[in-house]
Design goal:
92% helix, transmembrane, 73 residues, membrane
C-alpha cells in the first residue's frame, strides 16, 4: 500500500510540473512573438527559442529528480 501511495504522489507532482512548464512555454513563446513583432527580430527569435526549450529542460530535470527521490524509498 505504501508503494502505491508514493507512486500516486509522484505522478500527481509530475502532472503539476508538466502543466507549469506548459504555461511557462506559452508565456515565453508569446512574449518572444510580441518582442519580434515590435521590431527586435533577433531578440524576439532568441526569446521564442529559449521560451520553448527551457520548460522542456525543467520537465526533464525535475521528473528525473522526482524519480530518483521516490525510488530511494
Amino acid at each position: 500500500m505504501f508503494h502505491i501511495d508514493v507512486y500516486l504522489k509522484m505522478k500527481r507532482r509530475q502532472k503539476y510540473i508538466v502543466w507549469a512548464a506548459v504555461f511557462l512555454a506559452c508565456l515565453g513563446i508569446s512574449s518572444g512573438a510580441v518582442i519580434y513583432i515590435n521590431g527586435a527580430h533577433g531578440l524576439g527569435l532568441t526569446w521564442v527559442i529559449l521560451g520553448g526549450l527551457v520548460p522542456i529542460l525543467i520537465i526533464i530535470t525535475t521528473v528525473k529528480n522526482l524519480n530518483s527521490y521516490y525510488s530511494k524509498g
